[in-house]
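Subject: Predicted fold for PE domain-containing protein, 137 residues

User T.R. writes:
Posting the sequence so we have a shared reference for the thread.
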Amino acid sequence: MDQPASDAGKNWLPDFTITDGTGSPPGPGFTMSRDDAHSMLRLAKQAFVQFDEMQSRATYLTKLTPPADEPASNDYNGRLINGDGAFGAGLEHLGQLRGYTHALVRKLEQALGITESSEQTAAADVKAAGAPTGFTG
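User M.O. replies:
I've generated the structure tokens; pasting them so everyone works from the same file.
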């Protein structure tokens, strides 16, 4: 594990394989039971909601103003709220965590077949609605 992967940073999350407890996985990635995958999906969705709420609250910290309009307060406040400061970096980090958990949720849903079934339902709804007739004048 000392060597970085050739696709490091591009595909941080490999595919998931859902098994019924028999056989071996077809390739690289994670293998888990359907129950474990549903449990992990619930936890990942909860984490995503928490990171989303934290990110919206953290945005307020980057909008703080100094208590007085004098050089020391302005400098200290600027160091906290800019992108390299504690509050700016924290906000950026929460954005990354939110993105990672969103990708995890998508991968788990894809492995469980949730995404495909909702897309197939949407496609069937569009077909059932028929072609638009346009405006009548």
